[in-house]
Design brief:
- The chain has 439 residues and is an alpha/beta fold.
- The protein has two domains: 112 residues, Urease, subunit C, domain 1 (Roll), CATH 2.30.40; 296 residues, Alpha-Beta Barrel (TIM Barrel), CATH 3.20.20.
- The chain is 41% helix and 22% strand.
- Strands 1, 2, 3, 4, 5, 15, 16, 17 and 18 form a nine-stranded mixed beta sheet that branches. Strands 10-11-12-13-14 form a five-stranded parallel beta sheet.
Length: 439
């Protein structure tokens, strides 16, 4: 047991700031919150890891396979539109990945996330030259660092029918492996979803197979939809259906479905996503970087969550970009709405980790916590939390990160061997870039 002493509870949504208190953690859960808990649990380990403690941050859509692309030194052909960007850069990068590169990317991505106070990442993976077992290699990084995850493989028809079948097979294999571990008494930190690229790369046969995989595993679909206008236009031209309507025709919308981006969806599609209780993952910085436009309907989703789409894992930066881009686009939402989206990532975790509660610093909840050295020059109150996040608080103030009752970062130091992870990533990066030059 551990007693975390003299911290103030900070919740971003609904916003609240508590008085100084203690937190008792046993195993992976919070068992009590209150004063002087060390006296109630005299044999417990005691620590004081920061001024404030909040529920851990959740990144609800990411691509760790891009972790080794930072500062990329490979000639990339100029692109006229987003589809060419995929062809010239990202599909070229994912084709260059092998098992060791996937593992190194996962390690680097997980380390980055933990140091930024992120306790869980929902990842969308692709490595078409190394599909079988790739989610196990990605999982190595999550478990080495100690963060929580929901992983999937990006099924697509762009690599032919056999490539699509391999993607579905990998998704099913990984999900069933997690189920077997749980039945054997384990409590995995990493779960699985059924992944797919985007409707414009998915034929009807593949959607049928994905629906079967979702049904047989009890998981949801994690898919890019209408990240660019072309995806929506293609669906209407080739199939006579809006892309979300097409997914629904195959039974692929439900409470575990994650629709990433959704910039060019109709009002009817937004209503359909809400009716099916599915999630919309908003990735503001990525959309800006790719110049694909802005999600004007972001305020209309029941379950909007925030992701980074592979631009690191800094969720404090992401929530700020989401807010300020919305303001720049003439939107009326205040920061509290975007903090609500950040908080909704915990609902997504609850749907994939049965029997666990996330997102509050309270008894019975998972001890997935972020500790902050935030000492502002103005009062921090429940009424102005959103203003502090928008105009002062950031990931540079993360001091420690705890997942399932264990510190993964303590006093700004990774518990895992960060030096080895970084050196391995640098070595593998050189190999990745060389492989990309050959494609």
């Amino acid at each position: 047991m551990m007693v975390i002493e003299k911290v103030r509870l900070l919740h971003f949504s609904p916003p609240s700031v508590g008085e100084t208190t203690d937190i008792a953690v046993e195993g992976d859960r919070i068992v009590e919150v209150g004063p002087s808990l060390a006296q109630r649990y005299p044999g417990a380990e005691r620590c004081s890891p920061g001024l404030y403690v909040s529920p851990g941050l959740v990144c609800s859509h990411n691509h760790f396979y891009s972790a080794l692309s930072r500062g990329l030194m490979v000639d990339i052909q100029p692109s006229k539109d987003f589809t060419q960007q995929l062809q010239h850069l990202w599909w070229r990068l994912d084709r260059a990945l092998d098992g060791d590169l996937v593992a190194a990317s996962g390690m680097a991505g997980a380390m980055d996330a933990a140091l930024l106070g992120v306790t869980a990442v929902v990842d969308h993976h692709a490595s078409p030259a190394s599909v079988d077992g790739s989610l196990d290699r990605l999982r190595e990084g999550f478990e080495t660092v100690g963060i929580r995850g929901i992983l999937c493989y990006e099924t697509t028809d762009r690599n032919g029918p056999e490539g699509a079948k391999a993607g579905i097979r990998e998704n099913e294999r990984f999900a069933k492996k997690v189920d077997q571990e749980r039945k054997a008494g384990a409590d995995p930190l990493v779960e699985g979803a059924m992944g797919a690229h985007a409707p414009f790369t998915l034929g009807d046969d593949t959607l049928t197979a994905l629906a079967s995989a979702c049904s047989s595993t009890g998981r949801g679909l994690h898919v890019h939809v209408a990240e660019d206008r072309f995806d929506a236009v293609d669906s209407r031209y080739r199939f006579g259906l809006d892309p979300v309507v097409r997914l629904d025709r195959f039974g692929l919308l439900g409470p575990k479905t994650i629709i990433a981006h959704g910039l060019y969806l109709s009002d009817e599609e937004v209503e359909l996503i809400n009716r099916k209780d599915a999630f919309l993952a908003h990735n503001s910085r990525s959309n800006m970087n790719n110049q694909v436009g802005y999600n004007q309907r972001i305020g209309g989703y029941r379950n909007a969550v925030l992701g980074t789409d592979g631009i690191g894992s800094d969720m404090m930066e992401e929530v700020n970009f989401a807010f300020f881009k919305h303001r720049d686009a003439g939107g009326a939402l205040w920061m509290d709405a975007f903090l609500g989206m950040l908080q909704k990532g915990n609902l997504l975790l609850e749907r994939y980790f049965p029997g666990k509660k996330f997102g509050r610093v309270a008894p019975g909840y998972q001890a997935d916590l972020t500790f902050w050295d935030y000492d502002p020059p103005t009062p921090l109150r429940s009424e102005n939390v959103a203003g502090h996040v928008a105009f002062g608080m950031g990931s540079r103030m993360v001091r420690s990160t705890m997942v399932a009752g264990r510190f993964v970062v303590r006093d700004r130091t990774l518990i895992a061997d960060g030096e080895t992870i970084t050196e391995r990533a640098r070595t593998q990066t050189q190999r990745l870039w060389e492989r990309m030059k050959e494609l």
